[in-house]
Amino acid sequence: MSLSLVHSRALLGLQARPVxxxxxxxxxxxxxxxxxxxDTEVKEARERVRSAIQNAGLEFPGNKxxxxxxxxxxxxxxxxxxxxxxxxxxxxASGQIDGRxxxxxxxxxxLSLGGDLRPVRGALAMSLAVAxxxxxxxxxxxxxxxxVLPEGSAQEAALVPDAEIYRARHLLDVVRxxxxxxxxxxxxxxxxxxxxxxxxxxxxYADLADVKGQAAARRALEIAAAGGHSVLxxxxxxxxxxxxAQRFAGLLPAMTTAEALESAAIASLGGRFGLDxxxxxxxxxxxxxxxxxxxxxxxxxxxxxxxxxAHRGVLFLDELPEFPRAALExxxxxxxSGTITIxxxxxxxxxxxxxxxxxxxxxxxxxxxxxxxxxxRCSPEQVARYQGKLxxxxxxxxxxxxxxxxxxxxxLVNTPPGESSEAVRSRVAQARERxxxxxxxxxxxxxxxxxDAQCRLDPAAAKxxxxxxxxxxxxxxxxxxxxxxxxxxxxxxxxxxxxxTHVAEAVQYRRVLKSSQ
Length: 517
Fold this sequence. Notes:
By secondary structure, the chain is α/β, with parallel strands linked by helices. About 35% of the residues lie in helices and about 15% in strands. The chain contains 21 helices and 19 strands. Strand 13 (about 295-300) and strand 14 (about 305) form a beta hairpin. Helix 7 (about 215-225) runs parallel beside helix 17 and helix 19 packs parallel to helix 21. The longest helix has 19 residues, at about 420-440.
């Protein structure tokens, strides 16, 4: 048979679209043509596949005209994931393996020149697409496809429940399973069916007990974790802003299986996932020289940016005013919608971006405005210009603004540790559970009439909020965010209604910067 079909998948955003690898052998001048909107990495598969087949002791049909089509033709294909299906297609078309036995399998893997299989990125997204198809299997498809992947990628894909994953280490391990005839494949450890397993070790985070003092900042982080709010910490150098931010993920409730799969699938697209990171909330901390594309994602085909890699976790932006203005303004829509849509001329991809923003900055260029340890040497114009790098619309979308004061030596030396992350996390989990039972979402996600229904104020609290909003010049968004923070404070206190004390505390968290008023 001179025509064979092998199934694989191509990544477009977080979706793993099915691809049919069609291989045709014909008489004529020897050639190897690869078509189907293939990227440079895919076109280079010609040399890898040729060497891998020959070095594995198999016959490469070098005297034939080889045409490989990756269908559908309008779907972009990248990376070396198509090396294995192309090699199997050539072997099936030349009669060295039985092409009928390939039905019901999907293959992905990069080949070395010696035939070894190398891991590919996005294995978890492929496994999710195979295990959870858009439509249920019909009469013609009685079972879901089985996925064949290299070692490393297979363990990652096996995290998906109900997925049937096979691991192979070498091209010959795969070839042995599909030899012509009815005889059983020879036994070997190179081809193994991997059961769906989930790591059971608890995630490890840095402990908040390492932070001494800073009661106000610790309280703000607890409120942010309980309600899903974003935080801006303002303080002088060395006051502990980065230390607090790096421990924020440990205050969040444990991830559910669905959340862990979402986070791991995106990390797999970026090549950042390892089994030791399962169910660990990510903390992404890009340098302040990062561009807007690095933060929100982009490229062709589109790749996830830092805000998507921080999905269900924390995005920490240190030295916030030093980021490019375009990069910061690109965060405004994802902070509210929880998704980012990347549109290009050729294609469009949507990535989830439900992250919690934790930002840190100095109060002025020298960093010591308001410090009790050193005098500030900045003029009022320099301070205004520095703080003015952050636009009002961006600051309006940050729920909590907290000042982190510098600590004296006697507050650091021989001082007992602070409260541990585990103790704070238990209170956060209880408050988050109250919100989920009441409204089905975190307080930060409340919108429209749900804010009025869940954040109803008594006359005294309403009057206090109206006066504060008028004097501070808040926008409607700022008032709503203050209400949601007050609702979270009430949940932490176990109160069913939002009271005056809760509103008063929430107001205090939006008065640090003049430009945020």
